[in-house]
Amino acid sequence: MTSFPYGVVRVVIMQNGFNRFGNFNNRSPLRTLVNPQEIRKSWRSGGPVITGSIIVVCVAVWLIEIILRFLAPEAYMDFVFGGVVSPSLVLMNPWRIFTSMFLHSTNVLHVLFNMMALWSVGPLLERLMGHWQYCALYFISGLGGAVGLTLWAVIEPAPGWYTYALGASGAIFGLFGAVMVVFRRVGADIRPMLIWIGINFLMPFVISGIAWQAHVGGFVTGIALTELLTNGIPRLKRKSVATRMWIYGGFIVAALIVILVLCNMSNPRLNLSL
């Protein structure tokens, strides 16, 4: 493999009719998410195993939240607030960056909308990039979402540092950015997708409580990482996508961690603990 598989992108577009954003590869049967034989078959054929696994985990965690909220409210509060991400806690409890990506509010629209968005773009990217490269893109974009929240806390300290966020949307916006880069490179019509992304970016102005900062952070991270994968150092273009993901993904992660550390120099909670 000498470059990002643009030929595969074109074939996938032609085979699946990806001229509309809503038509991304969503034809995979749901049985591939629960049947071990189907999972193995789907893995070998480049099917959406990682995407399906993320959806299953997010929905399962959401159901646990619902059960706890009605049967054990105190346990529900411990469960949720023990996993949400907050700029003031991101260095002291770095695991929150990832646990928050599997938590959603108990409003069914939150988890439903996010999982539908993930299923609309995830299978295509997973097929194009490979399972583990796609998985890396997803979680690195989620890290970018946490960095977006932290950068905003520096700009707007109150209540920025004590903002709590949960949900997969930061990582999903990273996938939006990745699809936009790839489709633009192959000359596909991305206008419907841009409209969809624009609507999502405008939602915080209509619905309160949406962490738009995480959306922006994930989106920018997804674009930056995919741009490097597709248009990075010429000498690395002969390397496989997996190798380039290790190199560029590692660079992006290191850069995001440096940004987090620098931002936390003004973290009031961290300064108090010192």
From TrEMBL:
GO molecular function per UniProt: serine-type endopeptidase activity
Record's GO cellular component terms: membrane
GO biological process, one term: proteolysis
Transmembrane segments: 49-68, 75-95, 101-122, 134-155, 161-183, 195-225, 245-265
Entry protein name: Rhomboid family intramembrane serine protease
Intracellular or extracellular location(s): Membrane
Keywords for the protein's UniProt record, in alphabetical order: Hydrolase, Membrane, Protease, Transmembrane, Transmembrane helix
InterPro entries the UniProt entry points to: Peptidase_S54_rhomboid_dom, Rhomboid-like_sf, Rhomboid_protease_S54
Family: Belongs to the peptidase S54 family.
Domain Peptidase S54 rhomboid: 94-229
Species whose genome carries this gene: Bifidobacterium aquikefiri
PANTHER family the record matches: PRESENILIN-ASSOCIATED RHOMBOID-LIKE PROTEIN, MITOCHONDRIAL, RHOMBOID PROTEASE
Membrane topology, as annotated: Multi-pass membrane protein
Pfam families, per the entry: Rhomboid (PF01694)
